[in-house]
Write a structure and sequence with these properties.
Blueprint (H helix, E strand, L loop, with lengths): L1 H7 L5 H19 L3 H27 L7 H18 L3 H23 L4 H21 L1 H4 L5 E2 L10 H23 L2 H11 L1 H6 L4 H27 L1 E2 L6 H14 L5 H18 L5 H15 L14 H20 L1
Length: 335
């Protein structure tokens, strides 16, 4: 890391170097992957990394606890499935419509919930997500119901998994750089201040509701982009994109990686989406192993992997260290 810093004249953090190594590995992956299955698997991880970044804007930086973020994800997926697969609109128009739906959805969520706080806001967003989950199941003529919506595309670059992989990787990099600039801007500083003490920000004259709305609009737009990429990647959409499990996965991704860091959700998403399929190839008890792994992360790294040095040590480890230290002192005293 010091060598890179000296050569490039830029100060890199340890986590940035890790992300740089992951980027190089990702660029070379399609060239050395034994099958396209692994390319699709990593593409899925990158899509959920974009989704986790969008959720981190709301949860990690603004402190908005939403349990309905899968709503944006599902809207993007079904919009691409219907507009691109059924209607046959050109891709640029579909992209504009998807982003517009995310912005409009963020405004709707803001109007409905931003006067609420804490668990009340979380429950309203969860109810909205569940409403669309049931709607996607029942509206069979539009969504295909529980059988799902297949996306038939003509042969071209949109059907090439390697090109979709590189498209997802490029978008992940662009979104990461954009969000890094955003959270370090004056608006991002206000988001962080609101997360720490919303009442004080209000007393300082900031329009808290407007800043929260901006956060949710940005978060929703990015989440719909992730949903659209997901539909393009697998070319099949089911109501499970609105499922409660997607929201819980987002929370886990931010907790495991480290909420409010941008690096953390990316690492959390990659761990969460790759660990299950890879472990499942070797044992049928993969869910038990995943559960134990998540428990270890929550207990030993409560502030996330990227903040390991800041995470408080569990009490029983502190007691063991004290007990071991007292034993050493007694042995030294006897000598």
């Amino acid at each position: 890391m010091r060598y890179l810093t000296a050569r490039l004249g830029t100060r890199f953090t340890r986590m940035e170097v890790i992300l740089l190594v992951m980027l190089v590995f990702s660029v070379l992956l399609p060239l050395f992957a034994p099958s396209r299955y692994y390319v699709r698997l990593v593409t899925d991880a990158f899509i959920f990394a974009i989704l986790a970044l969008s959720y981190d804007v709301a949860l990690g930086y603004t402190g908005v606890i939403s349990l309905g973020h899968a709503w944006f994800f599902g809207l993007g997926a079904y919009a691409v499935g219907i507009l691109l697969g059924r209607v046959g609109l050109p891709l640029p128009i579909v992209v504009l419509i998807v982003v517009g739906m995310g912005i409009a959805g963020g405004i709707v969520i803001s109007v409905l919930t931003l006067r609420l706080k804490g668990i009340y806001l979380a429950m309203v967003t969860l109810a909205l997500c569940e409403f669309f989950y049931i709607l996607a199941q029942k509206w069979e003529t539009l969504t295909g119901g529980i059988e799902g919506l297949a996306i038939f595309l003509p042969q071209g670059w949109l059907t090439d998994p390697i090109l979709i992989f590189y498209l997802t990787l490029v978008l992940l990099g662009v979104i990461y750089v954009f969000l890094r600039r955003a959270v370090n801007s004056p608006v991002g500083r206000v988001w962080v201040a609101m997360r720490e003490n919303e009442i004080r920000c209000k007393h300082l004259g900031y329009d808290v509701v407007s800043y929260k709305m901006l956060s949710l609009v940005l978060s929703g737009a990015l989440a719909t982009v992730a949903g659209g990429l997901y539909a393009l990647s697998i070319r099949f959409v089911t109501p499970s994109v609105f499922a409660l499990s997607v929201n819980f996965q987002l929370v886990l991704m931010c907790i495991i990686g480290g909420a409010g860091t941008l690096h953390g959700p990316i690492i959390g998403a990659i761990i969460l989406r790759l660990l299950g399929p890879l472990v499942g190839d070797y044992t049928r008890y993969w869910e038990l192993i995943l559960g134990a792994t998540y428990l270890v992360f929550v207990l030993f790294f409560p502030w996330g992997i990227v903040r390991v040095h800041q995470s408080p040590r569990p009490k029983f480890i502190v007691q063991l260290q004290r007990w071991y230290g007292s034993l050493r002192k007694q042995s030294v005293a006897k000598k």
